[in-house]
Amino acid sequence: MKKFGSILVGVVLVLAGVLFALNALNITNINIFFDGWWTVFIIVPSIAGLFTERDKTGSLIGIGVGVLLLLCCQDIIAFDMLWKLLVPAIVIIIGLRMVLTGLRGSKADDMLSGMKKDGAEPRVGCATFSGCNLNYDGEVFDGAELTAVFGGVKCDLRNAIIEKDCAIRVCAIFGGIDILVPDNVNIKLNTTSIFGGASNKKPAQKDVPTLYISGTCMFGGAEVK
């Protein structure tokens, strides 16, 4: 998919270059610099992001912003209406993203719910205007719930005993969550990011237990390393 996104942007650039050349040779007289032409540099990368990014929310917002700006430049929509439409559009996109995520569910949520039904409670790490460090050295790890609100949480699993698939639910709101994992664990990251983000710096592994991570990052972030 990442290759497709790169190809899409490349094709647009090639077409633009060809049109420049044809116009220079007086073969064509196509006005490339139409009103709002610069919005293409917002819309096209955002469309490519739909194919390259795991979380599509940012790409959808980018497309919406680019299209609204283009319509304003084309005098289809008045500029004074831009903010009146832009904010509701962003809110709708975020809301739909959260609804679809909730309906679809996630492997991490299912595993943590299963733990609780079996009488096992995942460890909880919560930092509100503060910091929290969880260390699992020598402990069997099955699951955890991490929350950072204007604070930071560090979950160290590097020396934990991970014998089977496990799960972590994260919630970062104006805060940050760092998850340190050993090399013999595969990571499956599935989060909803709203003006925030989640990243995984660990390479994919085969024939090892998988750590499923889900949750929400709102003006905050989660990082697996």
Shape, principal axes of CA atoms: elongated
Query: Over the alpha carbons, how many angstroms does the gyration radius reach?
Result: 22 Å
Strand order of the largest sheet: 1-3-5-9-7
Q: How would you spell out the order of helices and strands?
A: HHHHHEEEEEEEEEE
Secondary-structure topology with pairs:
Blueprint: H1 2-24, H2 40-52, H3 57-73, H4 82-104, H5 107-117, E1 123-128, E2 131-135, E3 143-149, E4 152-156, E5 166-173, E6 176-180, E7 186-194, E8 197-200, E9 210-218, E10 221-224
Parallel strand pairs: 1-3, 2-4, 3-5, 4-6, 5-9, 6-10, 7-9, 8-10
Helix pairs in contact: 1-2, 2-3, 3-4
If you had to describe this structure to a student in words, what would you say it looks like?
Helix content is 39%, strand content 28%. It is built from five helices and ten strands, in the order H-H-H-H-H-E-E-E-E-E-E-E-E-E-E. The chain has helices at residues 2-24, 40-52, 57-73, 82-104, 107-117; strands at residues 123-128, 131-135, 143-149, 152-156, 166-173, 176-180, 186-194, 197-200, 210-218, 221-224. The longest helix is centred in the first third of the chain and has 23 residues, at 2-24.
